[in-house]
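Weekly sync, protein design subgroup
Attendees: M.S., D.O., the rotation student, P.L. (late)

Item 1: inverse folding check
M.S. brought a backbone from last month's batch and wanted to see whether the design step gives back something sensible before we order anything. D.O. pointed out we never logged the input encoding, so this time it goes straight into the notes. Structure tokens as presented (384 positions):
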């Protein structure tokens, strides 16, 4: 039975790596800082609350960055709002917050428009879907137009008093809602709703036990997840309780092996190496991460091009005389791969190390990489 726990430099030279079922041309150049970005500017209003040097935080529920299209970026930020009681006042709204959305030109960094409105909690996410922008704030989903105007709430048959997660396919055509519930015998299970992202109509609805938590992604047809009992990567069709093994975990950081589906049959994952595989278990490409670095849970996929990216960390164990050793992040890189040519085409050294916000996104055509580092956003060109 499955058991899931709660919760980038231009290439100058290549080395050929032989694989069992795949070939990858790996960059041999040193990581650069994206020292000539298209632009870089402060985009967030609030300074954030830094947890301290070396405490590497990736909290997309507080702030994040997404490409609306090839020419425009949306940056979102959850912040305090002390202007008065919420129009949707509820008990948990005693400490009100606001959600700020900023539409930015991806080539110049020029602010085109912005929108700020009250929300119920700080738990926020923004997704680009076929119908526009899907905005999650607490237990509420709303649809926004491309000019950041709210159209309507998105109705769904979930218990609004419970916590639920939202996952969107790389194509932006499919939404999956996952609500963890408890039955009469106090056993936990997941209730899934799969919606068409263009019409917001229901495609699938089913329950599954044990529940599925955060170690998964979706395509328009599949779910890919980590099975910690079997130390394996597994996939399942929508509406099915049957999982099949398609890959094995890589390295010792099992929690970072989250598979990211980039189309309806292929995904990438890895802890100490980048691994691309098909859902039938065929190896497509692999490359050891540079300098012994290990992956994080952050990934991004280009919507209309075979470009994917993942962030990796260099970690140093610092020993203290009268305390336990502590793992400290000493470097973070974002690696961008072109899966059509099986090459790593960009390696960005993220500097300075983020303290409280870190997110990144690929443009739909794969030509740009946008990075949010604390309050500052930067855009790098991705080499062809």
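Designed sequence read out in the meeting:
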């Amino acid at each position: 039975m499955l058991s899931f726990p709660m919760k980038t430099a231009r290439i100058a030279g290549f080395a050929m790596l032989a694989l069992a079922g795949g070939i990858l041309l790996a960059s041999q150049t040193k990581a650069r800082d994206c020292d000539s970005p298209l632009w870089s500017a402060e985009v967030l209003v609030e300074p954030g609350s830094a947890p301290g040097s070396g405490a590497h935080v990736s909290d997309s529920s507080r702030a994040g960055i997404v490409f609306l299209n090839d020419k425009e970026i949306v940056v979102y930020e959850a912040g305090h709002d002390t202007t008065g009681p919420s129009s949707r006042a509820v008990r948990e709204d005693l400490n009100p917050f606001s959600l700020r959305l900023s539409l930015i030109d991806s080539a110049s960094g020029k602010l085109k428009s912005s929108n700020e409105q009250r929300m119920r909690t700080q738990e926020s996410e923004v997704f680009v879907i076929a119908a526009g922008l899907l905005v999650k704030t607490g237990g509420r989903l709303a649809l926004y137009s491309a000019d950041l105007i709210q159209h309507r709430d998105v109705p769904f048959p979930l218990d609004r008093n419970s916590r639920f997660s939202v996952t969107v396919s790389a194509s932006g055509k499919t939404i999956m809602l996952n609500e963890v519930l408890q039955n009469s015998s106090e056993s936990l299970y997941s209730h899934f709703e799969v919606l068409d992202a263009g019409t917001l109509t229901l495609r699938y609805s089913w329950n599954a036990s044990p529940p599925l938590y955060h170690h998964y992604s979706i395509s328009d047809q599949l779910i890919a997840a980590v099975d910690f009992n079997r130390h394996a990567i597994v996939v399942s069709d929508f509406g099915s309780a049957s999982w099949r093994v398609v890959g094995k975990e890589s390295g010792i950081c099992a929690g970072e092996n989250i598979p990211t589906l980039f189309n309806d049959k292929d995904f990438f994952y890895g802890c100490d190496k980048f691994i691309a595989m098909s859902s039938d278990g065929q190896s497509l490409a692999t490359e050891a991460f540079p300098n012994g670095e290990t992956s994080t849970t952050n990934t991004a996929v280009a919507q209309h091009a075979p470009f994917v990216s993942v962030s990796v960390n260099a970690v140093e164990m610092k020993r203290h005389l009268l305390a336990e050793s502590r793992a400290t992040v000493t470097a973070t890189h974002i690696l961008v791969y072109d899966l059509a040519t099986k090459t790593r085409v960009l390696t960005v050294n993220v500097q300075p190390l983020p303290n409280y916000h870190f997110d990144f996104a690929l443009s739909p055509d794969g030509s740009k990489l946008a990075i949010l580092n604390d309050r500052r956003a930067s855009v790098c060109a991705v080499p062809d």
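Discussion: Residues 93 and 166 are 22 Å apart (CA to CA). The two ends are 44 Å apart (CA to CA).
Action: P.L. to compare against the previous round before Friday.
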